[in-house]
Every structure is written in structure tokens, then in C-alpha cells.
Structures
1.
Amino acid sequence: MAFDFTLNGRKVHVAGVPPQTTLLDFIRGQGLTGAKEGCAEGECGACTVLLVKANGSGSAFVPVNSCLMFLPMAAGQEIYTVEALANGGRLAECQQAMVDQGGSQCGYCTPGFVVSMFAEQYRPERSGPCDVHALSGNLCRCTGYRPIADAAATLGAPAADRFTERMQRPAPSIGAVNHGGFLRPTTLAECFALLAAHPGARKVAGGTDVAVESNLRGRRFDALISLEALEELRVFRASANEIEIGAGLTLTEISARWTAAPAVWHEWLPLFASPLIRNRATLGGNLATASPIGDGPPLLLALDARVRIAGPQGERMLPLDQFFRGYRQTALQPGELLLSVIVPEPLPALARFYKAAKRRMDDISTVAACFAFDIDDRGVVRRARMAYGGVAAIPLRAVEAEETIVGARWNESAVHRAQDVMERTLRPISDHRGSAAYRLALAQNLLEKFWWEQQAEAAA
Ligand SMILES: Cc1cc2nc3c(=O)[nH]c(=O)nc-3n(C[C@H](O)[C@H](O)[C@H](O)COP(=O)(O)OP(=O)(O)OC[C@H]3O[C@@H](n4cnc5c(N)ncnc54)[C@H](O)[C@@H]3O)c2cc1C
Ligand code: FES
Ligand code: FES
């Protein structure tokens, strides 16, 4: 019913705090009020803090949204807030750069920006200037982004200091937690026993969906079973036949490990939320939440992925196109969880991902599409996958549209035939993000865009 974690270098003992308290609320209650609550749903970055995570034999400072971490998720972790960055009244380089470049006005967003900028400056793999996209999960409503980007641009490699010294040492490993209904098992067997003992429990991985339900919709869970300490969900294996990606790896971790990832992965990843979210969001969580507008399903459906499911009776494998059963419903039985996602090799020769949203970056899809084709030397389509989110209650492949072009030449008339089939077969829903007619038109037009982009590339 109690646990410890390290906050700004000091051990903190937590007892008697409700399990759905956010890390943000807790640290602010400790008087560390640099991190702010702007939205409580991962959109603004005002609450950014640093987690110390493993990086090879050393560590890295990973920025995350503290509003989306339930406090018991911090158990055993080492966390730094903006207050830790200055040393004896001397500002950290990134803080001084913000002052020098005029990067702050009202200051509400500033601690969040500073923490993201700090993490980028100290990012172990960084060479050259700071990547301004590292700040893309932080919003500012008054300064404007130019002076903030200018501040980031002035930062070189970090000087040797207590933080670079900390990075030489390993990150803490997280263990079991039992805190007022928040349970974190460390083995699959324990996890299945807990799921059986708490049939109403909600599984939680990174929490970027579950914490939004808690914070914004006031949802209170009978129990939360955290999957974060299960090593079985953190595998990454690449062989000649397939890539196996642990369901519990964050998107950032997958990107670091999948060194031979196809171009479509690199197209997809930056369109998925923000770096702060990607540092916590898992691929398993993205599939299991079964949102019709999630971005993972179209990508993985187009790549013919399968999912490995584990339960008390053992393991089973399912093609991803049989995983989604209805609006927010999956083939997971009570007591089961997603272990990994398997992407078969060889990957399709031609694959593109498109996301139509109100904003280009850091927004949820209205319609997302992934097209994956193999086309032979004569221009004949040998394999076609057209996978969509946002055109039905579940993510799906437009199978009949695919069938109409396989075996035929890939040309404009094939595009129109597939569009005609979509007109008959896709049944989008209307909601505040887009009407059914608009979504259908998007689905059709994205295929056409895919075609015209290839023509442009061939002509270039
Ligand atoms: C600001 C913001 C922006 C976002 N932008 C995007 C976006 O651009 N695209 C997008 O697709 N999504 C987006 N999301 C949604 C979310 O980040 C993703 O769905 C994410 O991948 C969820 O992963 P998680 O580990 O945080 O899941 P959690 O919140 O921990 O869990 C989500 C659900 O999956 C279940 N679950 C988790 N892991 C497993 C498992 N291994 N086995 C069985 N069940 C499991 C949980 O019980 C829960 O029901 C966004 C969210 C926020 C807050
Ligand atoms: S308060 Fe806005 S992202 Fe956390
Ligand atoms: S300085 Fe006011 S919101 Fe950024």
C-alpha cells in the first residue's frame, strides 16, 4: 500500500494516496509547482517531467506528460522536474537560452518547454543541433514559437555535469507494486492470477488512453493492472521471416530498436501524437484500445501483421484483421493480453501512410490510410493492401477494392475501379470530425493521391 520513488535525487515515500492521483498533482502538492496543468490530457506539455530510462548500459532523460501518469506508475522510477535543472541559482543552459532569446511571456508553458529542450540537449544519440520537433508536444499560446526554436538552436552538446554523469549509470529497474488497487505484476503468471482475481480490473500500459478516461471523464477503475514490468511484452526480434514487436514497447523504443524499419514506419511515426506521448504510448495499447481512428491499425493491417495473445490457457496467434470485432471491441477474452505484434517479411515493396486530420501534426485522424503494394516488372499488381481507420466502426481493409486491382495493371483506371468499389462497400460513420460522405471521399481520394504521388516520383 506504499511505495518509493526518486524525485529530483531524493527518495520520496508515498502512502495513502488514491491510485488515480496523477504524478502531476502529486509533485505540485510537494511544492514543485513548475510543472503546470494546461489540459490534463497530454495535449499541451505544460506538465512535462523527465524519467530516467535505460539507454544501453547507461541512461537517458526521457520527457513525458506527468498528467497522464498515475502516481503508482512512478514507483521505483527516477524522476526530475524543472526545479532540478538549475544548479545553486545558476540556470541550466536551456533555461538561459530561453531568457536570452525571449522565449517566454506569461511563462505558463515555459517549464514544459525547458524540460523537453533539456531532454533534447542531453539526448545521447544527438549529434548536431537540437531537433526542434522534440518540442512539438509543447504548446505556447503567447510567445510564438520562433524565439523558442531559436533558443533550442543555440544549444550545443551538454557540458560535463551531474546530469551527464548520471547518464553513465544504469536506470532503475521497476518492480512489483500493490497500491490501493494499482497492481504491477512482474511475471505473466502473476498477471494472469491478478486478472482472474480482479475480473473488473482495467489493464494499463503507458496510460495515454486510460489516464485521459480517468482525468477527463472521471472514470474510476475497480483495479488497474499495470503491464509495464512484464519483460515478455518488451521483446524485439528481427529475423529473415518476421519482425516481432513487444506489445509493451513504447513507440519511441520501437523506433530505436527497429533499425531496418521500412520508410512507411518513418512516415507514420511523426504523425502519431507528440514525442511526449510516443515516449509512453505502446503499440499494444494502440491496438487493444481498438479506436476506429487509431493510427496503428491501418499501418499494421497493410503490413499483414498478426498478434500474439497470451492468457491463462496459453498463447494463440491471430491475424490482425480478425482482431477488431466491433466498436472498441477486440478478440481478447477476459484474462488475456496482447504479447506482441508480428510483421511478416518480406515487407511490401511499396507502402505509404496518409493521415487526414484537422492539424497535420499532433492530432487524431479523421481518416488514416495505409497502402502496401507489390507490383511486378510489367506493372501488374501482385499484392494490394488498402487499410483504413475512420471509415467504419472498426479499422479495416477494403478487401473488395483490393481484389478488383490484384492481377491487373496499376494505372488510373484501376484507381477508379477501386474507388467505385469503395463507394459500395465502405460504410463510414458521421461524427464531429467528419460526415460519412466526407470520410468516404477522403478514403477514395487518398488512394488517388497515392497513385499520383507515384506518377510524380516516376517523372522526377
Ligand atoms: C494527446 C494524445 C494524442 C494522441 N494521438 C494519437 C495519435 O495520433 N494516433 C493514435 O493512434 N493514438 C493517439 N493517441 C491515443 C494513445 O496515445 C494511443 O492509443 C496509445 O498507443 C495507447 O497506448 P498506451 O500504452 O498508452 O495504452 P493504455 O492507455 O495503457 O491502454 C489503452 C487500452 O489498451 C489496453 N491495453 C494496453 N496494453 C495492452 C496489452 N498489452 N494487452 C491487452 N490490453 C492492453 C488497456 O487496458 C486500455 O484499454 C493519443 C493520445 C493522447 C493523449
Ligand atoms: S497538462 Fe497538458 S499535457 Fe499534461
Ligand atoms: S509563454 Fe504564455 S503560453 Fe507560452
2.
Amino acid sequence: MSTKSAAQWLVGHNRFEQEKTDSSDKKNFGRAKTISITSGKGGVGKTSVTIKLAKLLADKGFKTLVIDCDYNLSNTAIKLGLPLTDNFYSLITAKKTFDECLVKHRGFYLLSGCNGSIDLFNESDGMEKFIIDILVSHEREFDYILLDSPAGIGKENLTINAYSDHRFVVVTPDRSSLTDSYSLMKILTTKYGVSENHLIVNKISSKKQYHRIIKTLGETVDKFLCSRLKVLGGLENQDISVDIFDRHLLDEENSALHRNFVKVVEMFSEENVGILPTISDHGQEVQLNVC
Ligand SMILES: Nc1ncnc2c1ncn2[C@@H]1O[C@H](COP(=O)(O)OP(=O)(O)OP(=O)(O)O)[C@@H](O)[C@H]1O
Ligand SMILES: [Mg+2]
């Protein structure tokens, strides 16, 4: 079987894609859009992207939940300056209800993970099923559920990525980030039948660099994977100290970075309107290899 036909076969037999097809009508009637913010390599900006997008969506009036899927190395609460809790562990052991475990902050809801909990570590087999159960049980209570994923190609992470309606793959100009995210998309496509991903390029230092990245990665996906890559935009590298970045990210609404994020959200909201075959300066959508 050729690579292309094998992938097509998998798409046709993939239960996640099948479920989504079957439930596409249902989705229009009050089911949250689930988005995994994911990457092959760590430290590329997934958590930063997740909390900024959550705030922008909340500001637009959407009821938005963030789940920290890096559930025992949780960073979301830290970035938001919230106290660390054992809520995730309390939820899996049914010591607290889902509602008791949520924190509302900056207009959105957060289910924070734990930080090096031994108890959670001992119980963590099959955690992807637990997270998917949360999605299934609560998808009608939110407009958007953002999943701040751990980096890498662990099966747990890939299963959650594949289950999500959308995957925002975050890359940086670093070559290893591009290679690792390509590997992530390759496995998602060939083993899980995922046929579409979105791309966000973070920490860019010039437009030229950004265009080179989307062209190179786009052409590689186009040539070797039977999947579609939709470019949501680029986020400028901020030359500020790391300790003030998080505050700048959420509070500074007069920055290039904020405008970059607004365009990403607009691009995603408008994407069903039409697919442009060309690459423009911003808000571009590159349709690549619709198999
Ligand atoms: N556009 C940017 N400009 C400058 N620094 C950034 C930018 N985006 C993120 N950072 C910084 O990069 C670092 C990693 O960001 P973040 O924690 O969001 O990445 P991550 O992908 O979630 O990491 P991990 O894989 O460990 O979960 C942080 O110090 C953050 O402040
Ligand atoms: Mg993170």
C-alpha cells in the first residue's frame, strides 16, 4: 500500500475523525470547539499562546476553559500568578467536583494541573482517557476548550491532540522545533488519521524569516504528508526579560504581540469563509495538499 493510500485508509477508519464526522451537526448545537495547543519541542510558547488566546476569546464573550494537560508539570497557574493547587488530583480521586476544581481568572476558566505530585504520578496511567472524559462531560458548558498540551510525541499527548477538533501546532524558527513538530504531525496523520493542523510561528524576528518557515514547513507537509496545514500567523519575539513577559503578554494591549494574537484569532474565526491559495503578509491561510 502506498503512503498516500495507507493514510487515506487510516483516515477512513479512524474513530476520532469518524466521531467528528458523525457529530458535525451536533457540534453546531452548543458543543464547545476543542483546540489542542501543541508542539514537538518544548519551550516554544504553548502555554503563553494558550492563556493569551483564552483571554482574547473570553474578552469576545466566549465562555472559555483552559485545561492544563501537562497535568503534573503545570505551568498555566504559575504564568497567571495563581496559587498552585492539587485540584487535578482531587478531581481524579473524586474528592472535589469539576466545578470546585475550576478557577475563574481574567474572564476564562482554568483547570490547573499539579506540580510533581507523587500521588498523581502513581495514578497517572490512562490520563488521556480521563481528560477526554472531561471534554465529553463538559463540552456543552463552554464555547471553547483549550488544551495546553505537553510537548512531544507521547501516546497520551497524541491521543488528546487527535481527539481535539483542532490542533494549533506552535513552532519557533529553531530548526529542531520545526523538525519535531513535523514529526508530531506525521504521526498524527499516519497513525491517528488527523487530516488538518493549524500552524502558529512564535518568536519570529523578521517577516522574511516567517515566510521562509511557513514555505519550508508547508512544502514539506504538502510533499510528504496527506494532511492540510493552515497557517494562522506569526508572533514576534519579544526582547524583554522573561520575568516581565507574562505580564506583558496579558496586560499590554498596545503591543505588536497583542496585534499578532488578535490576527490569529481573526484568522481562525474567519477560516471557514474561504481558503486562499496565496501567501500574504499576515492572516494568511495556505492550503496544502488536500488529499
Ligand atoms: N513571542 C515571545 N517572545 C519572547 N519570549 C517568549 C515568546 N513566547 C514565549 N516566550 C517565552 O518562552 C518561554 C517558554 O514559553 P512557554 O512556557 O509558553 O512555552 P511552552 O511551549 O509552554 O513550554 P513547555 O513545553 O515547557 O510547556 C517562556 O519563558 C516565555 O516567556
Ligand atoms: Mg507549557
